[in-house]
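Hi support team,

I'm filing this because I wasn't sure whether my run with guanosine-5'-monophosphate finished correctly. The job status page said complete, but I'd like someone to confirm that the output block is well-formed before I use it downstream. Pasting the exact inputs I used:
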Amino acid sequence: MNLEDFKDIKSLLSEPKNIAIVSHRNPDGDAYGSSLALYHYLLKFNHQVTVVSPNDCPAFLKWLPAQDKIVIFEKDEQKGIKILEAADIIFTLDFNALHRVGIKMQGVLEKVKPIFIMIDHHQQPDDYAKYAYVDPKVCSTCQMVYQFLKKLDHLEFIDINVGTCLYAGILTDTGSFRFPSTTSLTHKIVAHLIDLGVNGATIYNNIHNVNTYDSLQLLGRALKNMRVVNKYHTAYITLSQRDLLDFNFKKGDTEGVVNYALSIKNIIFAAIFIEDKKQKIIKISFRSVGNFSVNDFSRNHFNGGGHINAAGGKSDESLNDAVANFLNILPTYQEDLKQSYEK
Ligand code: 5GP
Ligand code: MN
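And here is everything the job wrote out:
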């Protein structure tokens, strides 16, 4: 996006508008953090603003300021449709392809004719948005929102609510400032937020210290189910519907579990396969270290995508077949995995 585009957007937002902010299905900290940060910012200009989310978030995000104002499309479809139809502007945050909102909401978004503004950090964006502020090198959509406000010369409108939401998304998408996407700019932004009064320690606690006995037992099962394929520097985890039921699975309980597979020495490619009988799919998360692209891997074989080192995907097969398929594909990546490992 060039300077003219930012000028256009600034003038567009200078008059009160009907605005919807849309996040992706199965929202994470960055999706809700960025959406709610933008929400709190836009409210200062007397816009009519609503965040519409395809489905609900895990419990560890329920404390985010104004999270309770989010309209959950899956729960209140008529209300969701009305808001999307009435919007002059729709921001889509933390995703870049309309199918990421689920089939019903996608249908609505494809019919309505607002001005679409995409703010995102994933690779290979679709071209539905009039304005697309996208940088796949940036750690999080929350950092993109901060930079967006900077381009509008509106950093002064970051208050404690905006700042708290931005911090939450940066924290979660950088794995608590550990991933290589964390740059000095990320730390400068976070330092600014702390200077504004944002409490990083409380946010960390709210997000991470939320285990239950059951969720830790489920983690134990996941680690037990883990398999290592040394030849390909790969480790994978499976969780069947039975495993989830055994430990009273709640949304969010499997968050971050795949990273345990990646933490093994000499492992650079990790996957977790989670059976979802209700949706009749196997939901897969891929992670890598180095230059092995799980975005490409997932796009090519598992109907998904994301970033170089973190991507999601799905399979319509059974859990066993999805894993067998994965193991069949692995040898074709032997050279890539080896090279990435040796780098
Ligand atoms: P997760 O494995 O945590 O669900 O997702 C990892 C990353 O990949 C996130 O940035 C997420 O937005 C993205 N992602 C997850 N599932 C999909 C998918 O089905 N398609 C695409 N394009 N990206 C996905
Ligand atoms: Mn993100």
